[in-house]
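<instruction>
Derive structure tokens from the sequence
<data>
Labelled lines for chain and fold:
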Amino acid sequence: MSELNTLRHASGGAHLRIQLCQQDGNLVLVVEDDGGGFATSPPPDGTAARGMGLRSIGVRVETLGAEPKQHSAPGLGTRTRIQLAHP
């Protein structure tokens, strides 16, 4: 049900695309939405720019030996790519 959670947080979004493929011997997961997006750099006042959900995803992915790469901007949706070495 994490897909529903993704859409819930993709404010204004109507579409969610999930792609899983093998590329150059790696397993690649890409999750994209067309929601409101967010600023990826910390605000000037020093407050946290990321919510607990994104931090939790980062911790889980790092335990697998990978790092999530997120691209987002206000009004442009969000794209998260995770690449894992495939044994």
The two ends are 27 Å apart (CA to CA). The longest strand covers residues 16-23. Helices lie at 2-9, 52-63. Strands lie at 16-23, 26-33, 69-72, 78-85.
